[in-house]
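Example 9 (inverse folding). The structure is encoded as follows.
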């Protein structure tokens, strides 16, 4: 089996473009937000979009419920799937999803920036956070069967494919469903705030999960026009690759806080205050 992944932050248009990517790389099955999708049908799973709050939605998307998870695993095995595309907000998330669904390691990861322009991504983010619009990459009739209460609209995308050997150009229409989850309506009904102490605790927890070697010196939190602004001052051990690993840490903190609380992080700046020596293990003397 070959496992592919499409990675992008929440609301950047992954579900909208999933079918186009799957068609391009020849992958007939998609795992998206708790669902196993084939062509225009939902084969198994439960949509995270139907959940009442963000935490439940994340748990559903990660298949934490054993019955939900097993229904998808069983269908994958029954269909003897050879190629599958997984959608997720980070490389770590799609890797975890592959393990959870008992799939082989991911063969190729495609980022949303590779298949969508910056303008398209910005429009998708605006649609998500201002209007609460989410996409499920199947026709409305398929969504209406089980999730009629959240169905908002449907859209058709024209996909111009390559030429057949006989010279006839292949073209297809993809229909997608636009939904508005209950948790977005709850968010529109009022504001969500979080204390500086609680936000600090969440940041510390994220850092501890991602990299236990980092020592936090100071965290500054202030409210900006588009969300919270966070300045993080840390010590790191000598030998750590700063650019790559700290960028992953920044993304991990932002994604987790936004997913689990619905709180928007406007900026997260990480400053390295000190490079410390790693603790050396005591050398054991050989017994004579």
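The amino acid assigned to each position is listed next.
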């Amino acid at each position: 089996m070959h496992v592919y992944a499409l990675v992008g932050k929440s609301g950047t248009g992954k579900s909208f473009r999933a079918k186009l990517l799957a068609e391009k790389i020849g992958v007939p099955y998609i795992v998206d937000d708790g669902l196993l999708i084939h062509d225009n049908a939902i084969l198994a799973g439960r949509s995270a979009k139907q959940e009442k709050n963000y935490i439940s939605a994340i748990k559903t998307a990660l298949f934490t419920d054993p019955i939900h998870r097993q229904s998808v695993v069983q269908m994958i095995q029954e269909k003897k799937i050879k190629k599958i595309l997984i959608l997720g907000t980070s490389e770590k998330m799609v890797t975890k999803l592959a393990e959870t669904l008992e799939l082989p390691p991911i063969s190729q990861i495609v980022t949303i920036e590779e298949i969508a322009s910056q303008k398209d991504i910005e429009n998708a983010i605006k649609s998500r956070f201002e209007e609460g619009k989410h996409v499920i990459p199947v026709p409305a009739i398929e969504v209406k069967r089980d999730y009629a209460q959240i169905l908002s609209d449907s859209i058709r995308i024209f996909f111009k494919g390559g030429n057949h050997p006989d010279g006839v150009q292949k073209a297809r229409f993809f229909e997608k469903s636009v939904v508005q989850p209950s948790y977005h309506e709850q968010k529109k009904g009022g504001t969500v705030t979080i204390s500086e102490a609680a936000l600090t605790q969440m940041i510390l927890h994220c850092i501890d999960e991602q990299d236990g070697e980092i020592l936090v010196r100071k965290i500054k939190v202030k409210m900006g026009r588009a969300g919270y602004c966070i300045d993080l001052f840390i010590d790191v051990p000598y030998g750590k690759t700063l650019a790559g690993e700290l960028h992953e840490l920044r993304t991990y903190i932002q994604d987790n806080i936004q997913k689990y609380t619905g709180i928007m992080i406007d900026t997260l700046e990480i400053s390295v205050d000190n490079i410390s020596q790693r603790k050396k293990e005591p050398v054991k003397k050989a017994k004579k």
